[in-house]
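ok trying again, last paste got cut off:
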Amino acid sequence: MSSESLVLRVAGRPVGRYTARPELAPALSPRPYLHPVTTLAGTAVTELSPADHLHHLGVGVAVPDVEGFNFWGGRTFVRGRGPTELDNHGAQRHSAFQLSDPDGFVEELRWVAGGTELLRERRTVAATELTDTAWALDFTFSLTNTTAADLSIGSPATNGRPGAAYGGFFWRARKEAEPPAVFTAGSEGEEAVHGSLAGWVALAGAGWTLVFAGATDRTRRDPWFVRTTEYPGVGSSLAHEERLPVPAGETVVRRVVTVVADGRLDASEAAALVRKAVSP
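nice, full thing came through this time. structure:
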């Protein structure tokens, strides 16, 4: 198994490919990603560099503002100017796999911009079988400020664009002829779910369902970023209304578990699989 890419397997079946050292243009904020990710029946549920957003790279961690540097890709939202092309892109550089098994891995990464390392990340990913038609992707990232100064993480929302608090764990889902349905235990529709604090959020397309759950108390305090009509994607917002401080030497940790299921689940089915997937 090379350090460039590896295949995740559940019960022997391939369900995702992880590319650790992608060859990408600087404006895409190069970073490792999972794509394709599939259901157990083989249906792809991710997209890589789709025409609508070339910088959307399957499943990974993307942050549009780390002390002014763009680790999301594309344009930067500047207060008073709007989306602006800037030469401020960073890159997440794979250092090593501390562990690499068919069902998961532990990876060390360096977040570098302007010739300087800003953050060091430990990423832990595991794939687990839930049923004959569903499996779970358990994704944890720990970001440590390795500089001598305090840093902060922002989003277009904290920079003046309401409703655009993206940044953190992000899953670009499969775009189909019809937008996917989105729902939680108590609400449905993009307008109701976007920005909400919910134990889980489900995205249901043609023959597949993704159920995203914050798996720690701290992760559950981050609102959900949801898109269905413009494009299908779900993320967990690190900086929803205010910038997230990361003092020198301190670490930010988040854990999101995603159920990947064949078929269109209802709310009770989604909740049952989340309970099975997220350990106490």
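cool. Helices lie at 190-193, 217-220, 267-277. The mean pLDDT is 96.
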